[in-house]
Structures are given as C-alpha cells and as structure tokens.
Design brief:
The complex is a heterodimer.
Chain A: H1 6-17, H2 19-43, H3 48-72, H4 83-111
Chain B: H1 2-29, E1 37-38, E2 42-46, H2 50-62, E3 63-64, E4 67-71, E5 76-78, H3 83-86, E6 97-99, E7 108-111, E8 115-119, E9 124-127, E10 132-134, E11 137-140, E12 145-146, E13 164-165, H4 171-187, E14 189-194, H5 205-219, E15 226-231, H6 241-254, E16 257-259, E17 262-268, E18 273-281, E19 287-295, E20 298-300, E21 305-306, H7 309-312, E22 343-345, H8 358-376, E23 389-396, E24 399-405, H9 426-444
Parallel strand pairs in B: 1-3, 2-4, 2-11, 4-7, 11-22, 13-20, 14-15, 14-20, 15-16
Antiparallel strand pairs in B: 5-6, 8-9, 9-10, 12-21, 17-18, 18-19, 23-24
Helix pairs in contact in B: 2-8, 4-5
The chains are: A mainly alpha, B alpha/beta.
Chain lengths: 120, 448
C-alpha cells in the first residue's frame, strides 16, 4: 500500500459502501455516541440497571458482528489462519459488543429517563 | 433552573464535539496536492483502462490548462482483478463491469475510437475513425491482447462447454468458465490448469484459479474423485523464488500435480485432449522438444499475450527483447521511452520485467506523473518505480497470501510484522474480498 493516509482510507471506505451509505453510517455512529454522552451528562450517573441490560446485550453484539463479517466475506471460522486473524476477529467482536452496549444503554435512557428520588 | 442551564451547555458541548469530529474527518478528504502547474501541453493517453483512467484523474489534479485526450473505443471498464472471483462462482459477472465514462474527470476529452497508428517522429496518433491527434506527450496504456488463435482448435465459442474455461477473456467468459469448472467440482475427473509462455497479466491468476477450483472440488461432489494438474512452460511456479517455493509446498499439501516445461499448443474439444509441447534438456544439454497429449475433464486455457497491433507496428517496441510480444521499450525505473522522451508506458504494455497488474499501475502512475510534470516545468523528475507488484494469492475460499514484491524479487510487505506475506491468512482474503475493489476504484479516481 502506497501513501496510506486518512484521505486514502476515507476514499477507500467511500468506494466500499458508496459515498452516501458511508457518511450515513458515520453520521449514525456520531448521533448514537452524541446521544450516549447526552444521557450521561443529563443524568450525571450511570444507571446500573440499564448498564446490566447493556452488558447482557454485549455477547449478542459480538457474535452478530462476527457472523456478519464472516457472511459478507464468504468465510468461516476454519479460515482463521494466524495471530493477526484472531486479533482481527476479536476486534470485530469487541466493536460489535461495545456498539450494541452503547446503543442499548442509550435507547433505554432516552425511553425511560432516570428518575431521581427526592431527598428526604 | 441551574440544571436547565447546564443541560443547554452540555447540548452545545455535544454538538461541538460532533462538529469537531466531522471537521477532522472532512479534513482528511481534501486531496493532499501541490499547487496546480499551468501548462498548455497536449497530452494524449492511449487507453482508458486502469492505467489511463487513473493517470488522467491525477493529471487534472496537477495541471491547469493542459489539453488531455484519452483514446479508447471500449465503452465498458473492467475491474480485471475480479475475474478470478467470477470464474470461481464467488461474484456475478456484473461485479467487474462499469462504464468507461463513469471514471473520467471533467476537463478531459474521450475519443471513443481505437488508436490505429502512432507516428513518434511527427508526434501524432491516428484513430480508427481517421482523426489525427497531435501530442506533446504521449502516454501509451492500451493494455494487451489475448492471442486465443495461437491455441490450435480453441475458440472462445467453446468456453463453458465440454469442460473448457478461459477466465481472462472477460466477464461473460469468466462466468462461462465457472459453468464448466462447477461441473468439474461436482463430477470430478481430470482438471488441467495451464499458463502461457509469454509475459502475462497477473501471473498469480493461473495459480489462484487452480487453488480455488481444487478447494471447491474438495468440498463438493468431486471430493475424492478428481485430479488437479498445473501445467506450465516455465521451470518454476512463480517468478519470485521464495513465493514459488511456498506455492510448491502448498500444491504438495493439496495433492496438485505439477508439470513444468509444458506449453499448451492445441486442443481437441471433441475428444477432450490437450496437446502440449514439452521441452527438456537432452544428453548434450540442448533442449529436446516433443509433444504430449493429456486428456482432461476440465481445462483452463490462458492464451499467449502480446502488445496490440498498433504498438507492434509503431516502432516503439523493444527490438531485442520479447520480439514475439512487442512490449514498449522503456526505462524500467521511469517508464520513459528510451528513444522518445516524450513517450511513457503505463500498465500491461510496459516492456519491464514485472508488473502487469493493477497494483503495479497504482505505483507506476505517480512516477510517470512526476516525470511528465517535471518535463513540463523544464526540470528532471525524481520518482522511481522499483517494480512493485502485489498479488493477493488466494489459496482457498476464505484464505489468501498477501504477496508483494519488486524487481529484485524482494518481498516488500505493506504491513511488516502484522500481515505475514507467505502465510495463508483470513485477513488477506478479507482484503481481496472487501477492500481491493474499493482501493482500485479510489485509484481510478486518482485518490489512492
């Protein structure tokens, strides 16, 4: 690979997904992240109840992300050939897990805002 | 009340962060380019394939006022690295096809005719429609021609029938190749995979096709009922020794038989017989030639490959090398013609020891751009092409080796320490499957 710059990477991703889908996905990721930060700042607390549901969703997100990548690339776990493959696969799983956790937490917080009990 | 105020601030903060992120991302898309060079040069590019198109896109980003003309009659642009995938049933034929005009920048003129003659003394190109184009600089990038007639008894009409494949001939033929190959992967028999004795486009493709069809056959109905034979005129499997050895080991593991010194000369489609000329050193050291016939149930034909007629008739080819093939005589580091400094070669046509691949084009284009722009400015260019070629060598569905090398047969991995070049990896397959076409398209647009 020659001249691996951010510009090159973005150009490649634009070609991979199509310009609108790529920037649409970037926008969705930014909106979800922004919403997550918003509920954290708004509530000034993590709800352990909501976080529990987010954690329960994590393995599902991890498996779904790996299954999605394997499916679109017509490959299977038997094709994992070396350490870099394992690292890549774990990276995909981690992104799926974190992504779904943020999404689940944010969705719950937006649907059911934290109710603070009045101080007695 | 105070809570409300803080909330507003937070919203602003969040919005600010989002904008900052978008701005940071957006900054990266601005192409890093030098100031435009003013020029009224007439630049003619023969060929609007990978090389011609990528070069035109880069030129319009570098020059202001130059008159850039592309000459190519082909309405379809082919993403040729995808043909191997089509011929293994992994992608539809449409995967490799787009329109030539989809990729051309504003400000260039496309003459949709073939180049019919080049006069390097008068500095003119004449097209098949009789147009005479004068140039100050000429970029020769017409690609190459497949000499199917050189294989006696073979014609493209036969592809897809009676166990015959020929994936190089284009997307439809690659799809028909898969028709013949898929039948072999179900019913088994003898599969023969050939390669020509001439220089060729992507010397890894014959190996990839062998690996893929062998892999699919081993998982389908043909399992245990087929033989795979790789038959080549050369005495090695790949021009880079270390890669050749690795492929030899993999062929050994898979049980793929290898026959060196065999050149496909003809076929008898009715009897399913392939005729090879063999060459082996005799007792006196002289090569002894003979003919052998091999029966097949599936035969993959890759014909000899040569420069287009217009190049061979132009007097621009090497006079003492590749005389039966006619590749353009040029300096291997600058791709500049050795007798006509205003002429450059790009892509398959270049008479250099390596590099008839899209990956080579990606590295050649900036070099020729540098020398051409330097010539316009009245100075010498400095960029050098070191023979970089890349071959994502698919070794089965789901795994590949990301082989990159140069003129000196050195491995030049893009990700040293991360992606081992001689290891069969899923990530290398991932790159071929997902990222390669996108990178190719970005290259066409002059962005990679």
């Amino acid at each position: 690979m020659q001249d691996m710059t951010l510009g090159t990477l973005i150009a490649v991703f634009e070609e991979m997904f199509g310009r609108w889908l790529f920037w649409g996905l970037v926008a969705v990721a930014l909106v979800v992240t922004a919403a997550y930060l918003y509920v954290l700042i708004r509530d000034r607390a993590m709800s352990m109840h909501k976080f529990l549901w987010a954690q329960i969703a994590m393995p599902f997100g991890a498996v779904a992300a790996v299954a999605f990548v394997l499916r679109i690339t017509r490959s299977g776990l038997r094709d994992i050939g070396g350490p870099i493959d394992v690292i890549t696969l774990l990276g995909v799983a981690a992104m799926g897990a974190v992504g779904i956790a943020v999404l689940v937490y944010t969705a719950q917080s937006l649907a059911r805002p934290l109710v603070r009990r009045p101080k007695t | 009340m105070s809570r409300r105020v803080e909330l507003t601030t937070s919203r602003r903060g969040v919005l600010g962060m989002a904008l900052a992120g978008a701005a940071a991302a957006g900054l990266g898309t601005a192409p890093a380019q030098a100031a435009l060079v003013r020029s009224s040069a007439r630049i003619v590019i023969i060929g609007a394939g990978a090389a011609g198109t990528a070069f035109a896109n880069r030129l319009v980003q570098r020059l202001d006022g130059a008159q850039i003309t592309l000459v190519d009659a082909r309405a379809e642009h082919l993403y040729q690295p995808g043909l191997s995938l089509v011929a293994a049933g992994l992608k539809p034929p449409g995967y490799v096809v787009s329109r030539t005009t989809d990729w051309l920048p504003r400000g260039v003129t496309l003459v949709a005719e073939q180049a019919a003659a080049i006069d390097p003394e008068a500095k003119t190109v004449t097209t098949s429609g009789g147009q005479r184009l004068e140039y100050d600089f000429l970029i020769v990038a017409p690609g190459l021609v497949l000499d199917h007639d050189a294989i006696e008894g073979f014609s493209l009409d036969l592809v897809g029938k009676d166990g015959l494949g020929a994936l190089y001939a284009g997307p439809e033929y690659a799809a028909r190749t898969w028709q013949a190959a898929s039948q072999f992967t179900e019913t088994g028999g003898v599969g023969i995979f050939s390669r020509p004795e001439t220089e060729m486009k992507c010397a890894g493709a014959p190996l990839k096709h062998t690996f893929l069809i062998d892999d699919i056959a081993s998982r389908n109905g043909a399992a245990g009922k087929y033989e795979a034979h790789y038959v080549c005129p050369q005495s090695v499997l790949f021009s880079v020794p270390i890669v050749s050895e690795k492929v030899r080991m993999l062929f050994g593991e898979r049980g793929i038989a290898t026959h060196y010194g065999h050149t496909l000369k003809g076929i008898e489609p009715g009897r399913k017989l392939a005729r090879f000329e063999t060459s082996a050193p005799g007792a006196d050291g002289e090569a002894v030639k003979s003919t052998v016939e091999m029966p097949y149930d599936y035969l993959h034909v890759i014909p000899p490959q040569r420069a287009p007629q217009v190049i061979r008739e132009s007097g621009l080819s090497w006079a003492d090398k590749w005389t039966d093939q006619g590749w353009l005589q040029c300096d291997m580091q600058t791709l500049r013609h050795l007798r006509y400094p205003e002429i450059f070669a790009l892509g398959d046509i270049a008479g250099i020891p390596k590099g008839k691949t899209a990956a080579s084009v990606k590295w050649q284009v900036p070099v020729v751009e540098d020398h051409l722009v330097a010539a316009i400015q009245g100075r010498e260019g400095t960029a050098i092409y070191g023979g970089y070629t890349s071959c994502p060598m698919i070794t089965r569905v789901g795994r590949a080796m990301l082989v990159e090398f140069d003129y000196d047969n050195n491995l030049v991995p893009s990700f040293p320490g991360l992606i081992a070049p001689l290891e069969e990896l899923w990530i290398s397959w991932l790159m071929k499957e997902v990222a390669l076409k996108a990178t190719y398209n970005a290259m066409l647009r002059g962005k990679a």
